[in-house]
Amino acid sequence: MAKFGKKSKTSQDIPTAALPDIIFMLLFFFMVTTVMRETDILVKQILPKAIQLSKLERKSLISYIYIGEPKQSGIFGKEPKIQVNDVFVEIDEIVLFINQEKDKLNEVERDQITIAMKVDVESKMGIVSDVQQELREANARKVLYSSIQTIDI
Amino acid sequence: MARRNRPTAQIPNGSMADIAFLLLIFFLVTTTMKNDKGIAMLLPPKPDPTQPPPEITENARNIFKILANSQDKLLVEDEPLSDVTQLRGMVKIFILNFGNPGDEGVIIYNSLPNSMKSFVSINGRRADSSDDPKEAIVSFKVDRGTSYELFVQVLDQVNGAYNDVYGERVGLSASQFLQLDRDDPIQDQKYLLARQGIGRNISIAEPNKIVN
User: Who has the most CB within 10 Å: A11, A15, A113, B208?
Assistant: First the structure.
C-alpha cells in the first residue's frame, strides 16, 4: 500500500505559454488553404460514390457543369437542370459555354480542357447524355464524372 | 524624473489564445476541401455528317455488352445481373480471355506475369469470349431513364477491372496503380509498362431517344 500513498513531487501543470503559437499555426494553415467558393451552386449536389477515381493534376484546365434538381424547386421546378457558372442554361447553350471556357485557356491547351460533371445521384441519364452530345459537338471530349471516394474492399 | 514613475505599457495577452481559437474555428467551419476526383472518360469524337456511320467490324464475341434499362436493371451478355459488384470480375475474365490471340495478343500474353498466365488458363481460353485484350471492347448502353448512380457504379466496376489488369501486370493493386505519379520517371515507366498494348476500350453507346 505504501506504493499508492507516495505523492509525486513533479508539478502537474501543463505549460500553456506556447498554446497561442500552436493555435496561430493551425489558424494560418486554414487561412491559407481556405478557398472561398466562387459560384453559388443552385442545384442539389449529392455526388455518387465510386472506388476507381483518378485525380486531375491541372486545375486550370477544369470547367464545371452542375446537374441536379434545383434547390429552389418552387421557382424552377423539380426537373433536373444544368448549371454553369452562376446560372441555369439550356442544353443548346452548352457549346457556347465550352467555347467561352476554351477562350480562357492558352491556345495549345484548348484541346485538353476537361469538363467535370457534378451530377446529383437522383438525376437520370437522359439529361447527362444530352450534355455529353453537346460536349462532343463542342469538341471537349475529356470528361470527369465527379464522385466521392469510397474504400476499396 | 517623471518618466520613471510611469507604469510600463503592457498589452494583456492572456486572451490571445481565445481570440486565435475563435478565428481558427471560423476558418475550420468555412473551409471546403475541393474534391476534383472522379472517373475520367474520353468521349468519342463527334460523328462526321458527311460520312455514313461506320460499319461494326468487330466480332460479337469481342464485345462485352452491358445494357441498363429505365428500371435500373442490368442485362450483361444477354443475362440479367442483379449485383453490380460482380461485373468487375466478369469484365476481368473477359479482357484476359485470349481465346484466339493475334500476333500482338501473343506478345501481350508473353509479357504477363506467371500469376496472370495461370489466371488465363483457369478462367479464359473460351472460344466464345474475347480474342485478346487489344480486341476486347466493353460496350455499355443506358436508357434515358437509367439513374446516374447506376451509370457511375457500372463505369466504376469496368474501370476497376481494367485497373486490376494494369496493376497486376506490374505487381500492384488497382488502387496502387491509380496512385502512380506520372511525373516521376520510374513510376511513369511502370505506368506505361502496365498500359502497354491493352487499351481501356470502353464504349458508351448513345441512349435510345424514346423513354420506355
Answer: A113
| CA atoms of B158 and B138, how far apart (whole Å) | 8
Predicted pLDDT at B212: 43
**Cα nearest neighbour of B154 on chain A:** A50
What is the total count of domains within chain A? Answer: 1
Domain ranges of chain B: 60-205
Best residue of B31, B91, B149, B182 to probe chain A, by most A CBs closer than 10 Å = B149
Which cell numbers hold the place of A61?
Answer: 484546365
* Cβ within 8 Å, pair A144-B36: yes
pLDDT of residue B38: 85
Q: Would the pTM of this model clear 0.80, i.e. be above it?
A: no
pLDDT at A102 over 60: yes
| DSSP-derived 3-state class of residue B109 | helix
How many A/B residue pairs have CB atoms within 8 Å? 152
Q: Which one of B16, B21, B39 would you mutate to disrupt binding with A, by most A Cβ within 10 Å of its Cβ? A: B39
A70 falls within a domain: yes
Domain region containing A128: 49-149
- Give the separation between CA B188 and CA B180, rounded to whole angstroms: 7
- Note whether B190 and B126 are within 8 A (CB): no
**Chain B neighbors of A19, CB-CB under 8 A:** 17
Nearest to A53 by CA among B87, B174, B44: B174
- Each residue of A119-137: pLDDT tens digit? 998 888 888 888 988 888 8
pLDDT at A150: 82
Contact B144, A129 (CB under 8 A): yes
* Mean pLDDT computed over every residue of chain A: 83
pLDDT digits (tens, 9 = 90+) for A74-91: 888 888 889 888 888 888
Calpha distance B99→B91 (Å, rounded): 15
| Domain membership flag for residue A44 | no
Inter-chain touch A141–B21, beta carbons under 8 Å:
no
Chain A: residue nearest B46 by CA?
A136
CATH number at residue A129: 3.30.420.270
B6 DSSP assignment: S
